[in-house]
Specification:
mainly alpha; 5 helices; elongated; 105 residues
């Protein structure tokens, strides 16, 4: 099986696995694992000529991608809060004020 990797992912792949996974949120790790399982399931389905298995694999890949994206978003937010706690607090306060105004209607 040939692994298609975009040039933008080469730097990511050159980082050792242990260091890459040490800094990942659990959702990111779950997403990567689900994507790999989906890719394998899809490949087995294609090899066996089972379109249902292949489609299930594609679904697992999509679910894994969503889970990984969610983990990436959590990571970005937590990094922002650690680097700029005052700005994060101000953004949270404004969001609460807006939500309060919307719910009072």
């Amino acid at each position: 099986m040939v692994l298609n990797v975009a040039p933008s992912q080469w730097a990511y792949l050159s980082v050792p696995l242990t260091r890459r996974f040490m800094n990942m949120k659990s959702e990111q790790v779950e997403g990567v694992a689900e994507k790999l399982a989906g890719k394998a399931q899809s490949a087995v389905g294609k090899l066996m000529g089972d379109s249902k298995l292949e489609a299930e694999g594609a679904g697992r890949q999509a679910a894994g991608h969503l889970t990984q994206t969610y983990g990436d978003a959590l990571d970005s937010v937590s990094t922002f809060v650690k680097e700029k706690p005052v700005a994060a607090l101000a953004i949270g306060a404004v969001a609460l004020l807006v939500l309060d105004r919307l719910l009072r209607r």
